[in-house]
């Protein structure tokens, strides 16, 4: 049987910590079969903005991206973070290829329309518009795409797009070609009933449980868009979706241990 495609997303709190990032990338490099790594980097973008005297503004976890901030995130996500990850993967014998969504037209998007809030240069991905062809070609040639959270509008403009959304959209687009597994890795053990207790992992979560835990405030902040994206992926044909600690990616995906939170479509 052909290996499943692994789409893995790594979040900003791990990327910001070199030792944790190195350890995660060493594990990721060992995953067998086709794989894609989508990275965030929001924390570093905020620090770099601050250093340049630009105040970072986020609404519901989404960065307001004016022209100056777009320049910062292009440098941070498309340059610094993406190329460092690629170099580290090469050191682990993983033939990585770093891309933004503009490269090879991997992720076309549209600038978010202004409603109550003007998010500026933030891109939304329309369902069914990601051409899977190029990624499929790269994967079939044993390359590992490393995707920065930048998309483009087809008119010469880069757009800033949440990395959790990109991971979900890519997994859905490729699920028509591969059995696809999506894993969100971050700095906690999974979705927790007590955010300060890593032993309170919810091992399986259904859509109904998610709604009630969101309503009572147990699930909050960045976990809300992450779970929205994760449930969208599973409803659209992605075989499995996990949310787990970056240290647990290998045991989970090699099915050697039960860890993290698995999403259940019901
Ligand atoms: N119930 C919960 N379980 C785990 N994390 C939660 C929960 N509710 C809120 N969070 C918060 O969500 C954050 C993850 O979202 P985010 O910061 O967007 O992740 P990432 O590092 O992948 O970008 C966690 O760091 C945590 O502070
Ligand atoms: C539009 C938008 O909010 N884009 C995100 C992209 C980076 C990201 O998603 O990084 P993490 O996964 O580390 O949070 C941002 O600029 O923060």
Low-confidence stretches: none
- Count of DSSP H/I helices: 9
The biggest beta sheet is recorded as: 8 strands, mixed
User: Total number of β-strand segments?
Assistant: 14
Bound molecules: adenosine-5'-diphosphate, N-acetyl-L-glutamyl 5-phosphate
- Tell me what the CATH architecture is: 3-Layer(aba) Sandwich
Which radius of gyration do the C-alpha atoms yield? 17 Å
* Principal-axis shape: globular
Provide the number of structural domains: 1
Placed side by side, the strands forming the largest sheet appear as 5-8-2-1-11-13-14-12
CATH superfamily: Acetylglutamate kinase-like
> What is the distance, rounded to the nearest whole angstrom, between the alpha carbons of the first and last residues?
28 Å
List keywords for this structure.
ATP binding; kinase; transferase; binds adenosine-5'-diphosphate; alpha/beta; 14 strands; two-stranded antiparallel ribbon; about 20% strand; 9 helices; eight-stranded mixed β-sheet; binds N-acetyl-L-glutamyl 5-phosphate; Acetylglutamate kinase; Carbamate kinase
Structure description:
With 266 residues, this protein is an alpha/beta fold. The protein has nine helices and 14 strands. It has one domain: Carbamate kinase (3-Layer(aba) Sandwich). Strands 5-8-2-1-11-13-14-12 form an eight-stranded mixed β-sheet, with helices on both faces. The longest helix is centred in the N-terminal third of the chain and has 25 residues. The radius of gyration is 17 Å and the shape is globular. The mean pLDDT is 95. The site of N-acetyl-L-glutamyl 5-phosphate has 15 residues, from helix 3 and strand 4. One of its GO terms (cellular component) is cytoplasm. Belongs to the acetylglutamate kinase family. ArgB subfamily.
């Amino acid at each position: 049987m052909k290996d499943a495609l692994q789409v893995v997303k790594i979040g900003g709190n791990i990327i910001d910590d070199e030792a944790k990032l190195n350890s995660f990338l060493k594990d990721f490099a060992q995953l067998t079969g086709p794989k894609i790594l989508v990275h965030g980097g929001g924390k570093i973008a905020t620090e770099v903005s601050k250093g340049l005297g630009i105040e970072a503004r986020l609404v519901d976890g989404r960065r307001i991206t004016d022209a100056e901030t777009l320049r910062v995130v292009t440098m941070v996500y498309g340059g610094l973070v993406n190329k460092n990850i690629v170099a580290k993967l090469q050191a682990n014998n993983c033939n990585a290829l770093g891309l933004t969504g503009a490269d090879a037209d991997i992720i076309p998007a549209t600038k978010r329309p202004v409603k109550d809030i003007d998010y500026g240069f933030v891109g939304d991905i329309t369902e069914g518009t990601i051409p899977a062809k190029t990624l499929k070609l790269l994967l079939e040639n044993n390359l590992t795409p490393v995707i920065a959270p930048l998309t483009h509008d087809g008119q010469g403009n880069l757009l800033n797009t949440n990395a959790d959304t990109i991971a979900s959209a890519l997994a859905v687009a490729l699920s028509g070609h591969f059995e696809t597994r999506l894993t969100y890795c971050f700095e906690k053990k999974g979705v927790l009933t007590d955010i300060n207790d890593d032993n309170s992992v919810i091992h399986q979560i259904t859509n109904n449980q998610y709604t009630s835990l969101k309503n009572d405030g147990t699930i909050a902040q960045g976990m809300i868009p992450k779970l929205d994206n994760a449930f969208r992926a599973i409803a659209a044909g992605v075989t499995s979706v996990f949310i787990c600690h970056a240290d647990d990616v290998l045991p989970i995906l090699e099915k050697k241990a039960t860890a993290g939170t698995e999403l259940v479509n019901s």
